[in-house]
Amino acid sequence: GYGKIPNRKSDCPRAQLAPHPTSSRPLSISQDPTSFTSLVSSLSTVAPQLKAVSCFASLIRRRRREGNPKAEQTKRAQPARSPETSLDAKEQMGFFSFLGRVLFASLFILSAWQMFNEFGDDGGPAAQEYMSKLSTVKHHLATTLAVKMPDIDARHVVAVNIVLKGLGGFLFVFGTPFGAYLLLVYLAVNAPLLYDFYNYRRGEMEYLILLNEFIQSVALFGALMFFLGMKNLIPKRQIKKKAAPKAKVG
Question: Could you tell me the keywords of this UniProt record (predicted)?
């Protein structure tokens, strides 16, 4: 259906298409089928024929490309993205990324602000909650491991948590990995301490409430780990641009 294929001497000379003088010999290994020498000699007789067939197939493919120029036109007709379109997309993604970090960090920043306003002289209600939790931990360690825990002031614990949540959330808004690490430390220490569902029986109201809060803390911990993983995968932008070569004077 493509017509007569042109005979191009530069691509496939007529001498290569002629049968090899020894091609009439049947393709068989000598009487010893395991002989490597006979196998190589048999394949050498077929090599010129295979070369001629490959040359003929290349001519057919070239003829098809010449007869169907629409394939190359469709490749060239695909519009390339302009730099303005790519810049707009990057700006939109940057805005949504910043907005997501603000919404995520607002949970920690608002909580730190509330603890700071209620701190007072005694540490506020957060210090009282930490006192009960720390006393429970000390009792468990004393009974199981026979280890005496030192006395920890709950106000100091509340102050450290305010710094971790406030500073960590503020730095996380600007995409700093150090802020994410601060929030990870806060969640890793406070989630099993505050939400001790394991000290209650199943079916109790406190068990279900604390278990729900613990699962939410684990989800936030996983989101921070995902942020750090993606931050390490994305290559850093090159801030410094190459300086233009100075024109030679004289």
Answer: Membrane, Transmembrane, Transmembrane helix
